[in-house]
Amino acid sequence: MQISSLFSLLIFFSSSSSFACASVIHDFAPTPEPSSSASTFLPPERELSPDAGFGFASTDYSPPAPPRSSKHPSHLPAPALAPAEQSEEAADILSPAPVAQGASGSADEDSGEETVRWCTVRGEMEDCRFLLNLLSQSSNYTWTCVIRDSSDECVDSIRKGEADIINLEAGAAFTAFLNSSMKAIANEIYCNRAESYAAVAVVHRKSCESKRSLSLMDFKGHRSCHGGRSSASGWTYPVDHIRKLFGSKKMNDVDIAANFFSKVCAPSDSGLGGGQGICSGCHDENKNGTSCRRDSLYYGDTGAFRCLMGGLGDVAFVRGDTALLYSREGPYNQSWSKRSVRDFMYLCPQGGCREINGYPGACSFGTVPANMIMASNSIPNHKRLNILERLANSSWIEAAYAERISSIHMVSPSTQEFTLMKTLTRSYLGQSASISQSIQHLKTQKAEGSASSANSFPDQYSMLWVLLSAALACCFCNQ
Which CATH number fits domain 36-44+198-368: 3.40.190.10, 3.90.79.10, 3.40.30.10, 3.30.200.210? Predict the structure, then answer.
């Protein structure tokens, strides 16, 4: 029986009774940012509309952290705490935190007060030990590795007191800040003292040559390569741009990407790719359609560029220097780096293409804050200062460059040094936080909409049937 019929019947019965300086690329080092006249295939640029809505309140989301005097002198002054980070009485955070036992644990873990526990994902144990051995030199602390299966698990371990720090890109850092009350204490510094990088789209040069006014809309129905779901340069920036093109408020981020592109390769650090349509383009790695995780060949900016270079995609969303670093001429070229950087170009969001020279300028989806060292909001002050003091000494990065930093995900390959975070986490994330929040809003809205649509008919139908039954019973009782 239709709902309208039930309503009519009910009324009848009633009448009666709710997102490296590329410095050593010989003969292809970055050149000064080109003027508009030097841009290749670039039509007149127009300003992208600013992000609308999803602003932040004036207060920090993180809970206040207890004040601690430094027990270990440091030449670094303690940064003044903003009102939102000032103290309240709390339990003694200096007491050793229990270390989780079981399959996810690591033999390197140490809950001692004089130990800095850097969390990273399984598969990077050797690289972690290599880096932390460098950091332990000339340090008052012992640096050790905590290994987990994903960045999400690392964040959870830091929240539980099982680890101290992790290095995250802006997209993941926002999630850790918003959901786990973590804060950024230091950030990477790149070439020319840059504390940010551009989120760009890279395409084959032939695509640009075939159409002078090429735009992202021309890639609708084509294949895409993303370094990972939720990463700023690989996911949130381009997906937010596509969202604005269509003005859709009914689809979440996965729906937007899956409906715009014919195949998508976007491995997930936390294994969320299965069955959600974001791993269909990852080729042999997704034979069963159930997983494409961090250990994928196509994870991260390098993986997305590899996906494009290997012919699995038509457009790759990466950091601005990725093609320079990992092409055939690049300083960090890999066994799969078979093609020249000249075989690719930047695809400008506003239309047209530009030569890849390390300075995409306006030919990007926006500026992403440099990767940051995230820690618990209640990390003891003396430990934080010692971490900052050691990270700020660039000698360990120079030693790492001499070895194999190009293949280590724990630190960006173009990192020159780390610097103390001078602002609150929310302020540092800036526009990136706004974009990430807009994507989060889409996810929440879709989930709530699905729950509402799933429950609306059964609930309404049940309520009408109850009322109808009562009316019928009353009617028969009066006979």
Answer: 3.40.190.10
